[in-house]
Amino acid sequence: MVHLEEITDKIETTLRVSEDKPTPNPAPAQSSSTQNASSTTPSNPIGPALPTVPIPALPPQLAHNAGKSVDEILADLNKSPLFMTELDDNNNTDLEALQALAYEGTPLENATDFKASGNEAFREKRWADAREFYGRGVALLTGEEKRRARGDPPHANDALGNDESEIAAQRSVLEALYVNRAACQLELGNHRQCWLDCAAALALNSRNVKAWYRSAKALLAVGRVAEADEACAGGLAVDANNGPLRAIAREIVAKAEADARKTAEEERRKVESARRGVNLRKALEAKGVKVRKSALPPDTGDARMELVEDENEGGTLTFPTVLLYPAHYESDFIKAFSEKETLMQHFGYVFPLPWDKAGEYSANGVGCFMETITGGLVKVGKKVALLKVVSLDSVEVVDGVVKIYVIPKAKAEGWVAEFKAAKAKEKEKGGT
């Protein structure tokens, strides 16, 4: 209790001695720890001494934190459930105690209630809500498993927490919660979470047929056929006549057969592709066609140089071909130009060109050229089979694509001169 001393007339007079004298604004009051060092404090104060008020002790938490750094204080706070920003599942008894106090009744009773609520939500096809209810029950009972593993005593509201029958009952409910939550995960398409919950249930009871079934179904849904087959076999080992398991077994067999057929077909295609590649190289060599790959080949989609195997000995080569119109910066693409075909045959459907408003391009009104290996030009006869052109010693097919320049005859001479001049400049730059 604070001591109050009556102010007598003598003390009051003393206190008023300097009342009429102007004084500066009072300085802030000094603590008792600095009073002795102050030069303004009179050595012999007039009147009785003021009572000494003891400095209160620091609160326990502040005293506990005295001398600690900010990081150390924050680390301590994170161990308290009320201030946690991260969960430590392995070692936070305060958190588990707070969770236990959040519900009335024992962990078993509360988990059973959550299971019932989850079942109701599941019947109403509220899969996410049901999963949440089951998850809360799982959290309660796995918390009990961890508590017992640490050797901690039961919570105050759970006197039978370490009783063998209570533990068995808890694990039975926990098993059901895992299996039921797995069903929710399956409905929600969370296949990995489904088989993880099933694995947790099977760790408690390896004879849980529902866990085997849901595991197999989730694994099959993501194409993990071999693992699905193992899960199904595990369930059938427990109950060989289980209808859902036998049904999923048939699905697994059908999927395995389909996968085997697909794998065999892919392998056949690989072998066939390799064989055709060998035959194509042989045909190109036999027909005198030189080929080269550039550093940046064009994207031609599924169009490619091929050997069409027919009754003709050696087969027939086809080439993706680009008709370039450099005078107008346009082009056309022919997906498969046979070695036996001529430009005139293709001009029959290529001309007239939709953008040729002046009518400069026609089968008889254009000249055609191909670039040579040395950077020159060779004239391509419009009635000559393509093979005769691409098999010339001076010509090569780059990246499997034939490129033919198509120029109006009236502009051909000027364009050829420009082309050669441009190539000459390129060679000069390359030489320097």
Automatic annotation (TrEMBL):
<dbReference type="Pfam" id="PF18972">
    <property type="entry name" value="Wheel"/>
</dbReference>
<feature type="region of interest" description="Disordered">
    <location>
        <begin position="1"/>
        <end position="63"/>
    </location>
</feature>
<keyword id="KW-0677">Repeat</keyword>
<dbReference type="GO" id="GO:0005634">
    <property type="term" value="C:nucleus"/>
</dbReference>
<keyword id="KW-0802">TPR repeat</keyword>
<feature type="compositionally biased region" description="Basic and acidic residues">
    <location>
        <begin position="1"/>
        <end position="22"/>
    </location>
</feature>
<dbReference type="GO" id="GO:0005829">
    <property type="term" value="C:cytosol"/>
</dbReference>
<feature type="domain" description="Cns1/TTC4 wheel">
    <location>
        <begin position="313"/>
        <end position="419"/>
    </location>
</feature>
<dbReference type="InterPro" id="IPR044059">
    <property type="entry name" value="Csn1/TTC4_wheel"/>
</dbReference>
<dbReference type="GO" id="GO:0006457">
    <property type="term" value="P:protein folding"/>
</dbReference>
<dbReference type="GO" id="GO:0030544">
    <property type="term" value="F:Hsp70 protein binding"/>
</dbReference>
<feature type="compositionally biased region" description="Low complexity">
    <location>
        <begin position="28"/>
        <end position="44"/>
    </location>
</feature>
<dbReference type="InterPro" id="IPR011990">
    <property type="entry name" value="TPR-like_helical_dom_sf"/>
</dbReference>
<protein>
    <submittedName>
        <fullName>HSP70/90 co-chaperone</fullName>
    </submittedName>
</protein>
<dbReference type="GO" id="GO:0051879">
    <property type="term" value="F:Hsp90 protein binding"/>
</dbReference>
